[in-house]
């Protein structure tokens, strides 16, 4: 306890100490095969072209243990495709369309997870660039007397990580408990397929895919707080209503404000470049799991068997886990964009309400034009992470659920009459089919 208290009160006032829990979590899950090493006496200026000779404030060093963790996770993800689980999956008591879609999802998800881990491993320069830009912004904010509370953000990052792990653990406990209660009525193929190794593999895959989402949420919270502090500093400066504000003082303040806003916007863009593919792939998985969850819940009304109940529970809990991370990302993406664009509103209020000279007002108008060209946008390339994405997810879910239901109803011979009987006896099932013909 004494060590934790000493560590807490010795947190240095920089971003590198604040994000250490996030960096360690990323490294343990194989996403960040680096170790963050900070240099407190380095120059705080952001790197520019032709200025690479300056000492950097932090660097990412590749160590042997970090590379081994990445290789171990890659082998663990891919080893499952060399087992006989595909044969067991074909005997699952669910419709053929869901079996084939599930197989394709597992293949695509494993390939995406491996690609995502390697993509972050090759994004070392962009991660260092993002950290240096944020450090430079923090130094500018301290000049505005609105310094960042790094201890609070450090505690927030720890609570975010532990909260996500506890949430995933509670979902696992709920799935395991209900599965235990339905173990008797379930068919034999469920007990053959859902072994301890399979359950551990699925939970590990979920945690791996959720890990970048937690980091992305933490980064968006960090950018949101800094944009908010910058807006507060700007509003407080022009709300003083002092008549002795000369042009040079306003010019200096606007120059520092423009540099800070510009640097933060560049940091958001670089941060999204690192994690956009991870969040996009997680959104795709969320859509697919959401489709299957809605489909299995609808199947409960026609075939209320223990197998269908367990299947709806499996997809429903996975859908809940992804929703608890995707929805906050959508909310925070909209908040970061709104906080970044609020500066333009504050500039126009300063023009209309303050008693400044014509030269100072001209500088404010010039700053307003700059803000129109430099607006933070939390984007994944193909789409932005805002409330429009939420509408797209739910509309796509409704569309494809209707398509799956129509296929099951219109082409029963191709998909083997919707759902298999809950007995799981393939011989008796064949006799039933022969009697129907």
Please characterize this protein's 3D structure:
The protein has 437 residues and is mostly helical. It has helices at residues 2-9, 15-18, 20-28, 64-78, 85-89, 96-121, 124-143, 150-181, 188-193, 196-238, 247-299, 306-353, 358-373, 387-410, 426-436, and strands at 35-38, 58-61. It has 15 helices and two strands. Helix 10 packs parallel to helix 12. It is elongated and about 85 Å long. Mean pLDDT is 76; it is low at 1-6, 47-56 and 410-437.
Compose a concise summary of this entry:
It contains 15 helices and 2 strands. The protein is mainly α and 437 residues long. Helix 3 packs parallel to helix 8 and helix 10 packs parallel to helix 12 (306-353).
Key phrases:
two-stranded antiparallel ribbon; single chain; mainly alpha; elongated; 15 helices; about 425 residues; about 75% helix; disordered C terminus; disordered N terminus
Helix and strand layout, with pairings?
Blueprint: H1 2-9, H2 15-18, H3 20-28, E1 35-38, E2 58-61, H4 64-78, H5 85-89, H6 96-121, H7 124-143, H8 150-181, H9 188-193, H10 196-238, H11 247-299, H12 306-353, H13 358-373, H14 387-410, H15 426-436
Antiparallel strand pairs: 1-2
Helix pairs in contact: 3-8, 4-6, 6-11, 7-11, 8-10, 8-12, 10-11, 10-12, 11-12, 11-13, 11-14, 12-13
What strand line-up does the widest sheet have?
Answer: 1-2
> What's the order of the H and E elements?
HHHEEHHHHHHHHHHHH
| Bulk shape | elongated
Strand content: under 5%
Number of strands: 2
The N- to C-terminal Cα distance equals 73 Å
The biggest beta sheet reads: 2 strands, antiparallel
Kindly state the mean pLDDT as a whole number?
76
Q: Helical segment tally?
A: 15
Poorly predicted runs are: 1-6, 47-56, 410-437
Q: If you compute it from the alpha carbons, what radius of gyration comes out, rounded to the nearest whole angstrom?
A: 27 Å
Class by alpha and beta content: mainly alpha
Q: Helical percent range?
A: over 70%
């Amino acid at each position: 306890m004494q060590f934790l208290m000493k560590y807490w009160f010795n947190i240095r006032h920089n971003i590198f100490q604040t994000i250490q829990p996030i960096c360690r979590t990323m490294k343990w899950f194989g996403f960040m095969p680096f170790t963050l090493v900070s240099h407190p006496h380095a120059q705080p200026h952001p790197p520019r072209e032709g200025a690479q000779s300056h000492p950097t404030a932090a660097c990412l060093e590749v160590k042997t243990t970090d590379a081994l963790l990445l290789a171990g996770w890659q082998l663990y993800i891919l080893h499952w495709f060399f087992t006989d689980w595909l044969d067991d999956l074909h005997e699952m008591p669910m419709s053929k369309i869901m079996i084939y879609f599930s197989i394709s999802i597992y293949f695509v998800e494993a390939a995406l997870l491996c690609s995502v881990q390697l993509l972050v491993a090759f994004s070392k320069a962009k991660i260092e660039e993002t950290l240096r830009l944020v450090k430079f912004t923090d130094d500018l904010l301290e000049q505005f007397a609105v310094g960042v509370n790094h201890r609070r953000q450090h505690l927030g990052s720890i609570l975010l990580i532990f909260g996500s792990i506890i949430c995933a653990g509670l979902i696992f406990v709920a799935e395991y408990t209900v599965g235990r209660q339905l173990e008797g009525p379930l068919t034999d193929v469920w007990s053959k397929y859902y072994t301890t190794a399979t359950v551990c593999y699925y939970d590990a895959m979920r945690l791996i895919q959720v890990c970048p989402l937690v980091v992305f949420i933490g980064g968006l919270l960090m950018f949101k707080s800094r944009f908010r502090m910058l807006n507060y500093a700007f509003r407080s400066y022009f709300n003083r209503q002092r008549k002795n504000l000369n042009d040079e003082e306003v010019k200096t303040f606007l120059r520092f404000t423009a540099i800070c806003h510009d640097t933060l916007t560049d940091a958001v863009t670089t941060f999204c470049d690192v994690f956009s593919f991870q969040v996009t792939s997680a959104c795709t998985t969320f859509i697919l799991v959401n489709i299957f969850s809605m489909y299995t819940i609808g199947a409960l009304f026609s075939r209320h068997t223990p197998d269908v109940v367990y299947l709806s529970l499996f997809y429903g809990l996975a859908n809940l886990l992804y929703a608890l991370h995707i929805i906050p990302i959508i909310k925070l993406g909209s908040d970061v964009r709104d906080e970044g664009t609020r500066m333009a509103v504050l500039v126009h209020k300063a023009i209309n309400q303050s008693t400044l000279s014509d030269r100072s007002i001209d500088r404010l108008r010039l700053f307003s034009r700059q803000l129109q060209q430099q607006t933070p946008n939390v984007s994944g390339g193909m789409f932005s992470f805002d409330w429009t994405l939420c509408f797209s997810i739910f509309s796509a879910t409704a569309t494809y659920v209707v398509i799956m239901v129509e296929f099951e109803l219109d082409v029963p011979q191709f998909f083997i009459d919707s759902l298999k009987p809950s007995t799981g006896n393939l011989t008796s099932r064949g006799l039933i089919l022969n009697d129907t013909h």
